[in-house]
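Example record for the data management plan.
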Amino acid sequence: MTNDTKLLLGIEDNHIKIYPHSVNQNPQTGVMEVNALLSYRPKACPNCGIKNCNHKIIKYGWRSTSFKMPRTCELDVIIKLKRRFFKCKECGSCFLAQTNLVSKNCTFSNNTKLAFLEKLKDRVSLTHIAKELSTTATYVNSILQSTEETVWDNKSLPTVINMDEIKSTKHAKGSMSFVYMDGTTHKF
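Corresponding structural encoding:
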């Protein structure tokens, strides 16, 4: 049952264990809650970088977090993840077990962020996307802006841009096209 649940939700992290009989569906509220556990032995301390040999990093309890996954079966999916908390004996810092399923200090899974980007391809408003994915338009806009910084490189734009509309073909409806070129190198 738990492997089927992981497959259905797209969870590929082998360190995440879903509790048996822990999937609670509530069709009235439209929410599916899944209780899971994340524990592993860390290789090194993320703060000081010391390797975990001779028990330099110890288990230091548990912390509960929750985050949203993409909708499944027309229900919002919330993962309640109990994460292992660790303490480094060398530097005294504490840290949580991390997974590639969700970014650090985030309440939406990376799969949900990809769903936001897929919905942004369509010509719909941010509020419509937010309503479909059970969030706010402000959050969808912040996802759009954060990916825009990684996808769009402002340095690739020329300092001077020349642009014009030209008649491209005589047979097409609305036969005007848009062209632009670098104003200093004169390359289209």
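Summary line stored alongside the record: The CA atoms of residues 167 and 174 lie 9 Å apart.
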